[in-house]
Each structure stands twice: as C-alpha cells, then as structure tokens.
Amino acid sequence: MYQLLIVDDEVTIRTSLANYFPWEQEGFEVAGVCEDGRQAIAFIESNPIDVLLIDIMMPHVTGIEVAQYIYENKLNIKVILLSAHGEFSYAQASMRVGVRHYVLKPTKYEELKQTFMEMREELDRERTQKDKETWEETDVIERIRNYIDENCAKASLEEISELFHLNLFYISRLFKKKTNMNYMDYLTKVRMEKAKQMLNNSDCLINEICIQVGYSDPRSFSKAFKKYFGVSPRECRGELSKVKEDDFYG
C-alpha cells in the first residue's frame, strides 16, 4: 500500500475524500488528513508518505507552497493538486515545483479514480526500477568483495575500477552505502584476517606473509597488524603456538 496524505481546508471535502473513496482498492492507504498547509508540512516531517492530495488554495500556506517545500527539500513525494481554479497561471506555478497532476473541484469519482490509477502505475514503475537498481548495486558490491577476498595482495581501487568499468568515486560511495564500511577498511580487514590465518596454519616466515597479503614493507605490515589485533605478528604466532601446545597436552 502506498501512503496518502489528504489536505483541504474544507472539512466536508477532506472527510468525504478520506472516507468515501475506495482507496485500498486502488492500492493506497490514508495515512493522515490535515486542514491546512502548515499541518501538512508538520505531518510530512514526521511521517513517511508517498502521495500528497492537497487543495491548491488555502489560508496561511497554499498547496503550491507545500509542493515547493517538497521540491526544495528533494522529498520523494508525489503531489496531486485539488483546485476549483482552472487558470493556466496556477498550472505554471505548480509545474515549476515539480507538480504534474491536477484534479479539479468539484471532484468527480471517475476522474479521481483515473488519476490515482495512473499514479499507482507510476509509483509501481519507479519502485520496480529502484528494486532493480538496488539488486544490481548489491550484485556489483558482492562481486567486488569476492575479488578483494581472492586478490587482497594486489587489489586496488584503480584496478577494480578498470576491471568493473566503474568510476573510482562511484565505487567508494557504493561500497560504503552497501557495506557500511570504507573500501580501505574492508581491504585491511581481509588482509589482516588472511595474515592471522597464515600465522596459525603455515610455517611461512612473517616477511613472506607480509608480501602475500599485499605489504612490501614488513614494518608497515607489523604496524598495521598490531593496530588491528593489538599484538604484533610475532606475538600473535607465539600466542597461537601456546594455544596449540595447551590443546595438545590437555
């Protein structure tokens, strides 16, 4: 269900619209009813809505002013203006703030039904497109993470950008958005976890492990490892060996 806010300064009109139109059949739920533009803005600031059906001419704050507030704040809310005025000047003013839908008073059932049927189709298309984009973004990030996991020694933003044909800054923003972690933080995590695993499960020298997880300078590797785990690679290997001995001797 899409959330709908109805705003009209005439109590009979707003009550009739809220109670006597089969909103649920059209895919909408009346989230609230307001009597003026000030109430509408306050409601919008504290409640998520998808569509605003609002009278164009009201005291204090007009429907166009509410539409302008939505437009200037880049809120993802569709606006449908209710008006007894057919003058072109109102249409011009509303178009400048992103309004594309009008319903003239007195409101006719079939016109309202047609308007909201078209609105639902528009919202459905946008939701489908958004879901598709979200799925595609998630898929891209999963592929990038898999690549880093398998190639942490050489992985770099520049290489990933070239490999996936994506802008560097786009990758950085998308990675943060989808993982709640910066790219470099994730790369460091993968390198450190792999290094610890190698310290535990191989006889490789620490200098060799350093190179295999992408560090050319052992001192930089040791510093990064200690910052991540709180102990140096040598101390970590000693602790892990002690644990193995304790397990062996019971």
CATH level-four homologous superfamily name of the domain at 2-107: Response regulator
At the fold tier of CATH, the topology name of the domain at 2-107 is: Rossmann fold
| Structural class determined from secondary elements | alpha/beta
Count of individual helical segments: 12
- In the CATH hierarchy, what is the architecture of the domain at 2-107 at level 2? 3-Layer(aba) Sandwich
Q: Determine the strand fraction and express it as a percent band.
A: 5-15%
Span between termini: 62 Å
Fraction of residues in H or I helices: 55-70%
Structural account:
The chain is α/β, with parallel strands linked by helices and 250 residues long. Among the domains are: 2-107, Response regulator (Rossmann fold, 3-Layer(aba) Sandwich), CATH 3.40.50; 185-249, Homeodomain-like (Arc Repressor Mutant, subunit A), CATH 1.10.10. The chain has 12 helices and 5 strands. The radius of gyration is 30 Å and the shape is elongated. The model is unreliable at 242-250 (pLDDT under 50).
